[in-house]
Specification:
Elements: H1 3-22, H2 28-37, H3 44-60, H4 68-76, H5 80-84, H6 110-118, E1 135-139, E2 153-154, E3 161-164, E4 181-183, H7 186-192, E5 202-205, H8 212-221, E6 226-231, H9 234-238, H10 240-247, E7 252-256, H11 262-265, E8 273-279, H12 294-297, H13 300-320, E9 321-331, H14 340-349, E10 353-356, E11 364-366, E12 369-372, H15 374-377, E13 382-389
Parallel strand pairs: 5-6, 5-8, 6-7, 8-9
Antiparallel strand pairs: 1-3, 1-4, 2-3, 9-13, 10-13, 11-12, 12-13
């Protein structure tokens, strides 16, 4: 592919991604993979170059652009070499017209920036929200006591956490036993520590998804005790059992729940869990480094629906905690309506519950819990609180 053809390919992909973001369609990675599956003539260098253009545009533009061309024009305005590829020759994009409008760079849509400011996030931290994320892993000691990886750096406060060099292909590392590494951001590992999981406990991972935090909890319990991992998403939950087997994890039960019937389907666990961990569905404002197109998908209406879902899962989780037990609430969001505000509302409505001080290896106190941010902690953004039932 010529440089101009690569630019046109990026424009076409961005057009599809913009529509998908507006209509809650396929993720950008899926769209890119499908695009090249139908264009076998594109070599690996072409695919890499086009992908880099696409994601450069997504990271650069906080507001969802009106078109892929407007998005690429924003990049071209800062890159003369890219602007030259708008030559109208062959498969290249048409020449740039006099006064042709382009999309404007930004960290996020204005309404979201206002919400972040209202949540106490300093504007100096905004640029880090869309930086490229590092590659972190958790070492599974059940499969490997010692792991040697060139360029890996230990993560402070996480004896099993490693930060790998950018571009490392974890699946192709030599000399690493199968199941010895789980890709998991340092922030995700840190907030899971709030559960203080111990051998012999009964723990519910209420929104387990594919089980990243479930496996981390199991590692802390050393195979002693019981973890019930639940979710309402069949496809995500189905990935947990194979991961647990690969990691050599025992004592994990999975249970698919029907939305709206969670309490009924968890009646056998009522008031009996030592800890309920809730990694609640959220806006993902703390994970834009890994999923920058999420800024184009979020709307005030969708945020309101997520907040309502969080209130629901908190109520469900509270019914499962034994007297003296705890509920750990986690969101990968930096918005207070999903984090500190959500917990404050819960505590106001539930007598006998109180927030417990946390001592984690990163983060700062925020409301009744702690908040981690990319700029301050070099992790994804999280809010976590540990609530104890009296």
């Amino acid at each position: 592919m010529t440089p101009a053809a690569r630019t046109q390919a990026a424009i076409e992909l961005l057009d599809e991604i913009i529509v998908a973001a507006r209509d809650s369609g396929a993720a950008a990675d899926t769209i890119v993979a499908r695009y090249f599956a139908n264009r076998r003539y594109a070599g690996s260098k072409d695919r890499r170059a086009v992908r880099e253009l696409v994601y450069a545009a997504i990271r650069t533009l906080g507001e969802r652009p009106r078109s892929g061309r407007a998005a690429m024009l924003a990049l071209a305005a800062e890159d003369p070499a890219l602007a030259e590829t708008f030559d109208g020759v062959g498969h290249g994009p048409a020449r740039i017209g006099d006064g042709e409008s382009k999309a404007w760079p930004g960290v996020a849509p204005n309404w979201l920036l206002e919400r972040l400011r209202a949540s106490g996030l300093d504007e100096g931290e905004f640029p880090a929200l869309i930086d490229r994320a590092p590659l972190d892993v958790r070492v599974n000691r059940a499969r490997a006591e010692d792991v040697a990886i060139d360029g890996a750096v230990a993560i402070a406060g996480l004896p099993d956490g490693l930060r790998l060099p950018t571009g490392t292909d974890v699946d192709r590392l030599e000399g690493i036993p199968d199941g010895a590494l789980e890709v998991q951001d340092a922030g995700s590992q840190i907030v899971t520590l709030a559960a203080d999981a111990r051998p012999g406990q009964r723990i519910v991972d209420l929104c387990a998804g594919a089980g990243g935090k479930t496996l981390a909890l199991a590692a802390e319990m050393h195979g002693e005790g019981t973890i019930l991992a639940t979710d309402t998403d069949r496809n995500r939950l189905a990935r947990l059992a194979p991961r647990a087997e690969r990691a050599g994890v025992d004592g994990v039960e999975t249970r698919l729940l029907n939305p709206g019937r969670e309490s009924e389907m968890l009646a056998d666990w009522a008031a009996s869990a030592d800890c309920v961990l809730i990694d609640a569905p959220c806006s993902g404002t703390g994970t834009w480094r890994r999923n920058p197109e999420a800024r184009w998908r979020l709307s005030p209406e969708r945020l309101d629906r997520l907040v309502a879902t969080q209130q629901h899962v908190l109520a469900v989780g509270a019914e499962l905690v034994r007297p003296g037990g705890a509920m750990v609430y986690i969101v990968c969001s930096l918005l207070d309506e999903e984090g500190a505000g959500q917990v404050a509302a819960f505590l106001a409505d539930h007598a006998g519950w109180h927030g417990e001080p946390l001592r984690l290896p990163a983060g700062r106190a925020h409301g009744a819990g702690m908040r981690l941010t990319p700029a301050h902690d070099a992790t994804d953004g999280f809010f976590v609180a540990r609530l104890t039932r009296g």
